[in-house]
Amino acid sequence: MITVTVALGSRSYDVIVGEGARERLADLVPPSAARAAIVTQETVPFTVDPGIDYETFRIGDGEQAKSLATVETLCRAWARWGLTRADVVVAAGGGVVTDTAGFAAAVYHRGVAVVHVPTTLLGMVDAAIGGKTGVNLPEGKNLVGAFWQPAGVLCDLDSLGTLPSRELRSGMGEIAKYHFLGGGDLSALPLAERIAACIRIKADIVASDERESGRRALLNYGHTLAHALETAGRYDLRHGEAVGIGLVFAAELAHALGRIDRDRVDEHRQVVAAHDLPTSLPAGIDTEELAALFTRDKKAVAGVTFVLDGPNGLETVTGVDRAAIDQAFARLRS
Questions:
Q1: Active-site residue (options: 63, 167, 210, 212)
Q2: Which residue, of 2, 108, 116, 259, has the greatest Cβ tally within 10 A?
């Protein structure tokens, strides 16, 4: 087992990575909890045992299930069952489960403890770490949410053997992102160490900026276009696939603004392609719709905003010129 600590003072917690990690669940359940609400999906291939009285609550599959309606359904079911503020929610599944159950836990009784058991690669390296929970609106992805740190996270590598190849590839989109956040050649590491390396990077950033007032925005590298693509395409693309395209777009945009040279752009393309991810816009996508969605991005508080590479590394850039955006779009169509 590999343990990475997210250092948040009295709210610090461990992320445990390894085969059979879910067997440690009872160790992470708060002592006050008399019962556990386990949130999962029909497609999740295994069960978890919190070591206390529990009930299982299943939500739908896909991004469509990440909705306020699902949060209401969960909270009402918990209320009927008698879940209290002293109890615990266990989110066992991919990013849809951890994002949705985490947000429901944050608002139910104004906050009940949650433990995440991510079952996808994407969930392990990103969604379950750092306490950013939320759901989608028709107007955009992750527009409603809360910062709610878990009591712990268990990344059981046994679950990855059951994933479809496309779902594994989706996780690679976030791993590719960490290459540009100081991860270097992560592909050279064994899978457990690669996952732990990504978690360490995210844990360090979250510890320094828990509520995204500055540095934490760097974790959104490639995500401005990615979220717009997911919304415009009605989630035909997996999140990691959209992030791969978003990383290449961000590099082309940085080049159009004179921030990086062509060699650095080519590095982005090579890293994304090496993870078997797309590097161009989907056929038929409306770039005007994408540009409109950019204005609804969570970072857009002072004009269209992107995380971009540059001479001093990644940084948040506001008020990005539309001409440069169109130039980057053109490069992703060529």
A1: 212
A2: 116
- Region(s) of the chain under CATH 1.20.1090.10: 211-333
**Residue 193 annotated as catalytic:** no
Catalytic, 141? Answer no
The 8-class DSSP code of residue 300 comes to -
Query: Which residue type does 12 have?
Result: S
CATH 3.40.50.1970 fits 2-163, yes or no: yes
Q: Is 220 a catalytic residue?
A: yes
Choose the catalytic residue: 227, 255, 259, 331. Answer: 227
Asked whether 112 and 149 are in contact (CB, 8 A), the reply is no
CATH (residue range 211-333): 1.20.1090.10
Tell me the C-alpha to C-alpha distance, in Å, between residue 226 and each of 181, 246, 293.
17, 5, 11
268 catalytic residue (yes or no): no
Annotation says 255 is catalytic: no
110 among known catalytic residues: yes
What pTM did the predictor assign? 0.92
CATH 3.40.50.1970 boundaries in the chain: 2-163
Residues 219 and 203 sit within 8 Å (Cβ to Cβ): no
Angle CA 271–94–108, to nearest 5: 130
Residues in the chain: 334
Separation CA 292–CA 290 (nearest Å)? 5
Which one-letter amino acid corresponds to residue 307? Answer: V
213-258, pLDDT tens digit by residue? 889 999 999 999 999 999 998 888 999 999 999 999 999 999 999 9
